[in-house]
Structure formats: C-alpha cells, structure tokens
Design brief:
- With about 250 residues, the protein is an alpha+beta fold.
- The chain has eight helices and six strands, in the order E-E-H-E-E-H-H-H-H-E-H-H-H-E.
- The strands form two sheets. The chain has a four-stranded antiparallel beta sheet with strand order 1-2-3-4. Strands 5-6 form a two-stranded antiparallel ribbon.
- Strand 3 and strand 4 (about 60-65) form a beta hairpin.
- Helix 2 crosses helix 7 (about 190-195).
- The longest helix is centred in the middle third of the chain and has 31 residues, at about 70-100.
- It is elongated, with a radius of gyration of 22 Å.
- The chain starts with 19 loop residues before the first strand and ends in an 8-residue tail after the last strand.
C-alpha cells in the first residue's frame, strides 16, 4: 500500500541548532550559534545539507562541514595570532627553566603581544565603539561573534608582531632574505583570512593593519633603544649566510 512517509526527506526532520555558549552570548569565544541568528542564505544551506552548524572559538567562526581548502587555510591563519604568542610563552618558560632567565626574543615578543592587545581592548576598541557608526564597527552578519569588529584584534596582534619582527630582520647588519619571506607568509595573510571567513569587513582589517603597523614600528624602536645587543633567531637558524646591510640604522 502507498505510504506518504516513504517519500519524506529524513533531513527535513532534523531539529535546527539550538544556541549554547560557555561565556557571554555573542562573544564568539566558545559558542554554538543558534539557528535563529543565522542569515537567510545560511538557513537555506542548512536545509540543503550544506551547512550543519556554526561554532565561534576564539572569535573565529567555524562552519561545519568546512566548505573547501581555502576555508581551511583561512581558519589556520585565524588562529596564528594566538598560536605564535603561545609558542613564545612556552619557549620563554623552557629557557627560564634551563638557564634561569627567559630567552629575550620570545619574551619581548610576548610582552609586545600582551601589552598592545591590552591597549587595543581597553583603549582603541572603546574609542571606535563610541565614536564610529555601527555601519563601520558591525561585523558581517555571518560572523558568530556579534561584538564590534573595529578594529580587528587578530589583525592588530598579527601585524604588530609582523612589522616588529620584519624590521628587526630587514634592518639587521646581515639580512637573511628567507626570514623576510617567511615572516610575510606566516602573518601577512591574516587580514585576508578574517575577511574570507566573514569575521570582519575590509575596512575593519585595513584600519587594523594601519594602526598595528605603527605599533610594530614603536615596538622596534623600543627594542633598539632600550634593549640593544640581543641575539635574534636568524642568527641561530638561517638557510643563507645573509646579505650585508649598508643601511643598518644606528640608535643612540
């Protein structure tokens, strides 16, 4: 006998995702986004089976299943601004346990990351939130994090560290070109990743990159004038012998 239920799509009986968060709702730190806050396009993708759920981890939106290789790459770059300071913290801790003091390079980098991130959260973001229109500060509607996105903390941290380390390598007495390329490849694409993953808008990442570039220059100046004569990683790990730099600046 003909049964109507045999023609029904089993996927249509799925329950839409219900919201859950470990911290504040909309913070995107550890959050499972509810179906009611999805965009219409995302809801349609869910009905078609192309999008199962959305997570916000560390203000990085993770949409499952991951759509393609570029999305995987964007997710990796989204976490590099966290991974590098964590790596430096471990490096500093290990060197402290071994020789009684932390290795200067990772410890100074960790101080930069922490202090400038604090300035960004307590000063820069607050100024932007109070003075700029919502059209500039609002994140894309697809982002799990709903907090204001001007400026981008990920881009600020990544570009501050990138500019500082790049200047250190480019203005040293011996320039190792492989290090310059590596620095740009590791941290340079972070703004693209944040836009591609729909966690920030183009104006937000561009403004963040500009502000962070200034911060990176300040960090370089502080290191050169207040903490000179410390070894850098390219003095230990280098593929080439380096190129003599006739334009090495002198700080007094």
């Amino acid at each position: 006998m003909y049964q109507q239920t045999a023609l029904e799509d089993p996927e249509s009986k799925r329950d839409p995702p219900a919201h859950w968060q470990l911290f504040a709702k909309g913070a995107g730190q550890c959050e499972y986004q509810g179906f009611d806050t999805w965009t219409d396009a995302e809801k349609e993708m869910w009905r078609e089976g192309k999008l199962r759920c959305k997570w916000g981890i560390g203000q990085v939106s993770i949409r499952l299943p991951v759509a393609n290789t570029l999305t995987y790459v964007a997710l990796v770059y989204g976490y590099l601004p966290f991974v590098i300071p964590i790596w430096w913290a471990i490096w500093s801790g290990v060197s402290y346990m071994r020789v009684g003091k932390p290795q200067f390079f990772p410890f100074f980098g960790l101080c930069i990351a922490g202090s400038f991130a604090l300035v960004n959260e307590l000063v820069t973001k607050q100024i932007c939130k109070r003075t700029l229109p919502a059209s500039l500060t609002a994140r894309p509607p697809e982002a799990v994090c709903k907090h204001p996105g001007m400026p981008s903390g990920h881009v600020m941290n990544a570009f501050t560290l990138m500019v500082w380390v790049f200047l250190e390598a480019a203005l040293d007495n011996l320039v190792h070109l492989e290090w310059l390329v590596a620095i740009l490849l590791v941290l340079g694409p972070v703004p693209w990743a944040r836009v591609y993953n729909k966690d920030h808008t183009v104006p937000q990442v561009l403004a963040s990159a500009c502000i962070a570039s200034v911060m990176g220059c300040i960090a370089f100046y502080i290191r050169k004038t207040h903490f000179p004569h410390h070894p850098m990683p390219w003095e230990w790990y280098a593929v080439s012998d380096g190129v003599k730099n006739p334009y090495e600046p002198e700080f007094t």
